[in-house]
Structure formats: C-alpha cells, structure tokens
Amino acid sequence: MNFYSRKLIKPEDLNPNNTLFGGSLLRWIDEEAAIFAICQLNTDKLVTKFISEINFINSARAGDIIEMGMEVLKFGRSSITFKCEVRNKFNKQKIITIDNIVFVHVDENGRPKPHGVTTETPPEIDQAVVPA
User: Fold this and answer.
1) What's the half-sphere exposure (Cβ side, CA atoms, 13 Å) at 95?
2) Burial level of 58, CB count in 10 A (0-12/13-18/19+)?
3) Can you tell me the distance from the alpha carbon of 79 to that of 71, in angstroms, rounded to the nearest whole number?
4) Which residue, 14, 20, 30, 74, is most buried by CB atoms nearer than 10 A?
C-alpha cells in the first residue's frame, strides 16, 4: 500500500474526548480517495458510490501526524475499487481501515460511463488530469 498524504492533527480536529473526531477523518479520507481515483482514471468526472464498513482501530491526538494509504483492488467497466488505511506516521499504528471504496466514472448526466482503464498507475508517473 502506498501512503499518499499526511495531516497534522490540530485542536479543531478533536472531539470532546480530545481525540481525533471521526467525521473529520472521514471527510479527509473521501477527499484523498477522490484524488486517488482521479489520478488512476485520469478524469475528474467521478462520484463516490460506496464505502464499506469502517473499522476504527486507534485514535490520534493533537500534534500527531497521520498518513492515508490507498491500494487498487480492481477496475470495473465504469468503476474503480480500492482499500484504505490510515496510520500514525511515527509509530505506524493503524487508526482506521476501510476494505472497499468504490468510485464511478459518470457522464454529463451523472450516469455511469466506461473509463477504459485496466491497470494501476504507479504514483511516480501519475498523469495530469485532463478535463473531459
């Protein structure tokens, strides 16, 4: 699994227990997942279709740095499915795992549209997104 981005946990990201608020983390994951899908399919015409069970394993506190990783599981005709792991940058403790995140390529009317991609784009050769 490749880890693509990092976040510094700040006081405004905390819940009343002074640990990372799950809603903030899920917002970051959805954004990172969208960026990952856009880079893989080389299009920004994508929507989140499905996020499977979310497993909160550990938490994070203010000052921690977390990193988000994504790994392609499969390419469908109009979809891409991958998994996600978020971990603490320094001690490598898993914070959250998601087994399946699905994005669907859509046309101008929001209907599924074939994307034509069948293999993963390695992170070091990501293409610039060309608007459709």
Assistant:
1) 25
2) middle
3) 14
4) 20
CB count within 10 Å of CB 96 equals: 22
Rg (alpha carbons) of the chain, rounded to whole number: 16
Residue 121 is classified by DSSP as P
| Structure token digits, residue 76 | 């469908």
Whether the CA torsion 49, 43, 24, 124 is positive or negative: it is positive
C-alpha torsion sign, points 128, 30, 1, 59: positive
Pair of tokens at residue 74: 């499969």
Within a domain: 125: no
CATH code, 106:
3.10.129.10
Residue 74 belongs to a domain: yes
Torsion-angle region of residue 59: left (phi > 0), alpha (psi -120 to 50) or beta?
beta
- The answer for residues whose C-beta is within 8 angstroms of residue 105's C-beta and 6 or more apart is 41, 43, 45, 46, 78, 79, 80, 112, 113, 114, 115
**Dist. CA 85–CA 97, nearest whole Å:** 5
